Amino acid sequence: QYHTPVSFVPAYTDAQWSADGQYLALRARDAGRLGIWNPNAKTFKWLTLSTFTDHPGWQIDAYCWSHDGHTIAYSGRSAIGRDVEVHVRDANSTNENDITDVYRGGVPVTAITFTGHDRQLALGDARGIVTRIDLKAGSVPLTGYHPKVNEVFSIDEALYSASQDEILMWNKKVAPAQYWNFLSSGEIEYQGL
After folding, report:
1. DSSP state of 177
2. Which CA distances in Å does 24 have to 45, 80, 111, 176?
3. Which pairs count as long-range contacts for 118-123, CB under 8 Å and 24+ apart, including other chains?
4. pLDDT tens-digit map of 41-81
5. Which of 92, 104, 149, 170 could form a disulfide linkage to 159, CB 3.0–4.6 angstroms apart?
6. Rounded distance, CA 65 to CA 15, Å?
7. Quick check: helix, strand or coil at residue 129?
């Protein structure tokens, strides 16, 4: 086997390989930056947010890779946190403007994941709102509430959100938030219905 020597700058606070193992995302949390390393091409590039590219105060808060490839989704915000954007891009693209803007809001995103066979994104924000976005339609079909959400993840079609206190399992039903159910502490609670 061949190995590419890698040395990491201590400023990088976390790293994740793409699902296909071709790219490594490196986040420098203190600097609010996110970059992608391609070991095959021996290249590294910083990702940008369309609105904040020339703004010195923007920072990336959360990111995730798609489940079956090398598409990356990431969220960023202005320094004061009132201008929030979520973007999706193919890590293989060499065009810096090849960014799909999928969400804009006013509250920092704390967690992000692909769901629904990579057709949707789920976001958790600083207010505790969990939002599911349909990437093809560009719509926000579902929202729910999970106080202090700090992680969202999916397995098959199921969506989970987590805080320090609990893990919620959201059902697969594509319906308004009042029909969502969740599993927490061994009990099933129903909203609506």
Report:
1. G
2. 11, 29, 19, 36
3. 118/66, 118/67, 118/68, 118/69, 118/71, 121/73, 121/86, 121/88, 122/152, 122/154, 122/159, 122/161, 123/62, 123/75, 123/86, 123/152
4. 888 888 876 555 555 667 888 999 998 888 999 998 887 77
5. 170
6. 11
7. strand
pLDDT tens profile 165-177: 888 887 655 444 4
Q: How far is it, in rounded angstroms, from Cα 136 to Cα 30? A: 33
CA distances from 174 to 116, 120, 133, 177 (A): 11, 12, 11, 9
Distance, C-alpha 21 to centroid of its chain: 18
